[in-house]
């Protein structure tokens, strides 16, 4: 369905429809990467001086991600992968999430939106560095890698079309936590690094289930996700390996690493959701339900990490 061309100034209802289309292009309903900022603030001990820089950095992150997913939609629209993955043969998918496919936005509008949001996001990141209490060189480098890789995810170098999709999904999330913590404290502890990796694994471990569902369409356009390359059995082994790796990181950090001894116990509910996700997706083949479990696991993991940091802060002050 295509939107009718306006013969004059847009009516309020038309403006709302256009704004809604752009919001769906930006995937504003998927906010899980943005949880990196409250996690970083908790790692900084909830310092008031870190709040404004993190808010600026967080708003910039929303815009950077909006630009990245807009470019991803343009590329998916051009190569036909979105039409294959969101077409009438996949009725469970929400076609409305793809305003290019519905005709609500044109390619030119989506590309313009991508550059404007990515550029504005980059500007806010620079402002965050300017007002932050700390700005070590490594945070600038990590932020630059996050920015470049997000814009180039499906555009320009198209790193997700060159076998780097899964690396980006975990690396971008971990990078946001590391940069946010560095801007707030000037450094990252060993336990902070563990939390950054656990946070990054969250988007990866719900993304791989979407990739499993989209494997045929991705393979057809030459997008070499693990699901498209390894086939069903290899992909199941990959997902199971990621789940085991996440649980092992929690156990190792609590037993041998920098986490408190009770960290593993605190993480039991979140890890239980993760195991349930594995059973639902790999064991029963219910990919959409497994993706939903992945969102819950990521959010519960982040909430648990913030609670753990608060407990450690209170304990240190008592």
What's a concise summary of this model?
By secondary structure, the chain is mainly alpha-helical.
Fill in the keyword field for this structure:
UbiA_sf; mainly alpha; transmembrane helix; membrane; 1,4-dihydroxy-2-naphthoate octaprenyltransferase; Four Helix Bundle (Hemerythrin (Met), subunit A)
CATH topology of the domain at 189-313: Four Helix Bundle (Hemerythrin (Met), subunit A)
Radius of gyration: 20 Å
Count of helical segments? Answer: 14
Q: In percent terms, what proportion of residues is strand? A: under 5%
Mean of residue pLDDT? 92
Q: Provide the CATH superfamily of the domain at 189-313.
A: UbiA prenyltransferase
Largest beta-sheet details: none
End-to-end separation: 62 Å
Mind telling me the CATH class of the domain at 189-313? Answer: Mainly Alpha
How many E-type strands? 0
Helix content: over 70%
Main location: membrane
Subcellular location: Membrane
Keywords: Membrane, Transmembrane, Transmembrane helix
Organism: Actinokineospora diospyrosa
């Amino acid at each position: 369905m295509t939107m009718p061309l306006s013969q004059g100034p847009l009516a309020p209802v038309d403006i709302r429809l256009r704004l809604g289309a752009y919001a769906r292009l930006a995937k504003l309903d998927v906010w899980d990467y943005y949880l990196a900022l409250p996690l970083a603030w908790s790692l900084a001990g909830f310092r008031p001086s870190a709040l404004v820089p993190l808010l600026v950095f967080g708003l910039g992150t929303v815009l950077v991600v909006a630009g990245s997913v807009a470019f991803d939609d343009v590329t998916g629209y051009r190569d036909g992968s979105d039409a294959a993955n969101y077409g009438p043969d996949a009725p469970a998918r929400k076609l409305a999430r793809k305003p290019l496919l519905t005709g609500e936005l044109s390619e030119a509008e989506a590309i313009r939106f991508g550059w404007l949001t990515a550029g504005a996001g980059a500007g806010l990141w620079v402002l965050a560095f300017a007002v932050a209490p700390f700005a070590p060189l490594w945070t600038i480098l990590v932020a630059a890698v996050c920015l470049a890789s997000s814009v180039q995810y499906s555009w320009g170098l198209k790193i997700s079309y060159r076998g780097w999709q899964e690396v980006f999904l975990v690396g971008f999330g971990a990078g946001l936590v590391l940069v946010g913590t560095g801007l707030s404290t000037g450094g990252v502890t060993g336990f902070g690094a563990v939390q950054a990796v656990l946070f990054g694994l969250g988007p990866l471990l719900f993304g791989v289930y979407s990739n499993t569902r989209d494997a045929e369409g991705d393979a057809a356009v030459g997008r070499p996700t693990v699901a498209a390359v390894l086939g069903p059995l290899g992909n199941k082994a990959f997902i199971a390996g990621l789940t085991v790796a996440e649980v092992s990181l929690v156990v190792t950090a609590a037993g041998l690493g920098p986490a408190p001894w009770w960290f593993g116990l605190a993480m039991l509910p979140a890890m239980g959701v993760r195991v349930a996700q594995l059973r639902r997706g790999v064991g029963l083949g219910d990919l959409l339900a497994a993706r939903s479990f992945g969102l819950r696991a990521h959010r519960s993991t982040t909430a648990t990490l913030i609670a753990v940091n608060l407990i450690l802060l209170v304990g240190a002050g008592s």
